[in-house]
Design goal:
Chain lengths: 139, 73
């Protein structure tokens, strides 16, 4: 498995786990009427931990394969990134329009912000997931 | 899946050049080993520039590395 593929796996899993935890709490607030108290703190703790873990795991990856880490992305890797972004962008658009559509629902600013954040997270998961699929397909 | 229209002789050329490894070839042409592997297996068609670099690495003309088999679209 190449350095870039491992990197995509790390980011994909971290986003899935950390934002999975966050949106489970958000869903409890929206659908089960739980209190939203402490959710902002949870958000910043999770994002901080995610960034920290990203850095640590990528450093470990770079130590494990230093030459690959130093090598710039080649044309196939850049193409894979572009293709994955092309797939993820419509997902982001649909999510953004769905969030705008919430104006017609009895939803507040907080719910709309969560909807936008959810769209961004799903689009990122699609982007890194697509990268992994393309890397696997070429392996 | 049918045979890809662009085939190559990279595996054979690596063998003829003292069993040159994919990593060594990758270093010479400035791509990753995984990309050399994908090209060799016909899963990725390289840009013209990389194709010429591969040919230059083996010191052979381009058509000795890559062959285009025309098929009905």
């Amino acid at each position: 498995m190449s350095f870039r593929e491992k990197s995509a796996w790390i980011t994909f899993v971290l986003i899935l786990v950390f934002f999975g935890v966050y949106f489970t709490r958000v869903a409890a607030v929206i659908f089960a009427g739980h209190s939203a108290r402490g959710l902002s703190t949870l958000f910043f703790v999770l994002v901080g931990s995610l960034i920290g873990l990203e850095v640590v795991l990528h450093l470990a990856l770079a130590v494990q394969s230093p030459r690959e880490a130093r090598t710039p992305k080649d044309e196939r890797e850049r193409l894979i990134e572009l293709r994955a972004t092309r797939i993820a962008f419509p997902v982001l658009l649909v999510g953004a329009f769905a969030a705008i559509g919430m104006l017609h629902l009895p939803a507040g600013r907080w719910e709309m912000a969560q909807a936008v954040l959810f769209a961004i997270v799903v689009a990122e998961l699609v982007r890194f997931g697509a990268q992994i699929v393309y890397f696997r397909r070429d392996a | 899946m049918g045979t890809p229209p662009i085939t190559n002789r990279i595996r054979r050329l690596r063998f003829d050049h003292g069993e040159l490894t994919q990593q060594e070839l990758a270093n010479r042409i400035g791509v990753t080993r995984q990309t050399v592997n994908a090209i060799e297996l016909g899963k990725y068609s390289p840009s013209l520039e990389v194709a010429f670099r591969i040919a230059a690495a083996f010191k052979v003309p381009l058509e000795e590395v890559f062959q285009f088999t025309e098929s009905t679209p």
